[in-house]
Amino acid sequence: MNRAAAAAIPLVAALALAGCVNSNDPGPSPPPSSSPTVTSTSPANPTPPVDMGATADPVPEAGTDSQTAAIDTAEKAVTAFARPDLSYEEWINGLYPYLTQAGAAAYEDTDPALVPVRQVTGAGTILPASTEVALTVQVPTDAGPYNVSLSRPSPDTPWLADRIRPAEG
């Protein structure tokens, strides 16, 4: 027998023995636990009962005082927005008091020099579908009408602008 064949015999034997091992064997089982196992028949996250006849309460339409306050805020927001001659810091700091957090984030990278509006040219009007917590006011400007989306968390808090953008039309 030559040396190559003699060296191959232990290798073949090792491979044959490795094939006899069950690869699905999980190994030794853990020792039994001393605490009892409790099984539950109820789901971990039960679904609450649903009343199929229930409907959500509609949000009331914005009243006259609420609409007046919204128009006032929208006009002030557009007036603060329409100051392209200011430095960025002056512009954004003048606009912040009229903006929600989302509105502030939307305009924080705006270059005021690129804002086409220079002035408000008339009174704002409430667009249809106004509620006590969300509405849109259209404000006329020298660059055409602008829609101001306003919101507030509840009817007893001030209106703030989410967005100020040209009216589509």
Automatic annotation (TrEMBL):
Keywords assigned by UniProt, alphabetized = Signal
Signal peptide, first to last residue: 1-18
Matching PROSITE patterns:
PROKAR_LIPOPROTEIN
Compositional bias (Low complexity) at which positions? Answer: 35-44
- Disordered: region residues: 20-66
Protein name (Swiss-Prot/TrEMBL) = Lipoprotein
Organism the protein comes from: Herbiconiux ginsengi
Q: What is the lineage of its organism?
A: Bacteria, Bacillati, Actinomycetota, Actinomycetes, Micrococcales
